[in-house]
Automatic annotation (TrEMBL):
Name this polypeptide is given: Major facilitator superfamily (MFS) profile domain-containing protein
Gene Ontology CC entries for this record: plasma membrane
Key words of the record: Cell membrane, Membrane, Sugar transport, Transmembrane, Transmembrane helix, Transport
MF annotations from Gene Ontology: sugar transmembrane transporter activity
PANTHER family xref list: AT22075P-RELATED (PTHR48021:SF33), PTHR48021
Annotated source species: Anopheles merus (Mosquito)
Top-rank taxon: Eukaryota
Membrane-crossing residue ranges in chain numbering: 47-71, 91-113, 125-141, 147-167, 179-198, 204-225, 294-323, 335-353, 360-382, 394-421, 433-453, 459-483
Compartments, as annotated in UniProt: Cell membrane
Membrane in keyword set: yes
Keyword Membrane among record annotations: yes
Amino acid sequence: MLKHCMVHSNCQGASRCKAIRFKATKPSGSDERATTMASTRGVRNQIFATGVMNLINLSHGAALGWVSPYLPILMSPDQNLLSTGPVTVEQGSWIGSILCLGALFGAFVYGYLVEKFGIKRTLQTLVIPHSAFWIITYLATSVHQLYLARFLAGLSGGGIIVVFPLFIADISDKKIRGILGSFLALTSNGGFLLMYVIGDVLSYHTVALTMLALPLLFTVLMCFVPDTPQTCLKKGRTAEAERSFMFYRAIRTQAEKTSALRQEFINMEKFIKHNSGQNSRVTLADFKSREAKLGIFIGVFLMFINQFCGIFAILTYAATIFAGVGSTLSPNTSAIIMGTIQIVGTLSSFVFVDLAGRKVLLIISTFGTGLGLFVLAVFNWLTVNMSTHWIKDYSWFPIVSLSATVYLFSIGLCSIPFFVLPELLPLKICNAGNTLSMVSITIFAFISLKIFPIMVEVIYIYGVLGLYAGISFAGVAIITFIVPETKGKSLISPQSV
């Protein structure tokens, strides 16, 4: 069982899981001003470190989106890229979905590595399986080699969802923790868009070589990013921990270290010592309370809706979708537009989530996703089954409808499931509950991606879209009656941050 929260876009959950209250001394006026100035400078260092870290996530997002432009090429009867011949529908479903099995395995592997070697070293190891994906993709001569490549891409993805939130929770100022945590969703979506764009202009082999630049840049720049103070303290490297603390708080000399900042570092040491001395083990009895059972049910259910509303599968197979729903735009151009809309939606969610609240935004997002998919399913059914000329006058409709659907998905259902669970679970089982939640989404994602191409063959695109719409509408009902509002709920005491 992993020993940390894996929170996609709000890293406060990792801190909540091991929260402890320490009394801090109140700073004087001059100390407070000096602390504020250092905090402002420290934000720049925190943003720099977060930006460097997210280079590998940007590349991983591109790996996720790689299927959209290049799977149709691999499946083309005219392709001569693989000695095994054109990829079949069944093989294509494995290429799309086996990444999720890699993520499931990677979540456990990197959960162990982060405990064994610390956060920075574990982050640096992400380059190995991720770079291997691009290299094997370039060299692949059979579909089985592509299976291996995609599995390795998933392995690094599993590490990302484990390690990134821990890094953000350790280094960030509490005032910008949510913003820094949200970079994870932004850069992942940006990677999708990047692949949609370059996949429209670069050849199969050229794109694999080009994308190796990002993990290489990540490797170089990580040399300038210190390990987190918490990791250094856990490993007994107190002097290194102090230097790291000074870097992330932008304290250039010992003379600049105010009493408030000294107290913060002392509290951090106490925090680490307290946690290392805890021997309380999570037992089955801890999961039997009503709060625990409800929280875990909601967490797993939201992960189910996140995947089986169908948007992730649609983004993964975007070019194939647009080729079949009746859009007159080229499939790759349509995918680029949709990828851009997704980023706009993710940015919008940062504003709406604290204005509207989690529950309201989840209901709006899930209902809007279902409605958009239902309308598109009806349009596709009319296109396939009705010989009406007026349909051709609305060939713009698929891209508009699906882009609106992706926007509505992105403002709520895309990110809220990943950080609402720590707001619901009892403190003691927070780690275990988040681990279960992350494991469940990798399983759901695998199933969703594996069966999508097969379902399209059996019940056609309109049938698949209609099924996803029905699941979304059912999700609205369950969210309305079961999911509580957690807006404004305190996760940790201020002194523990």
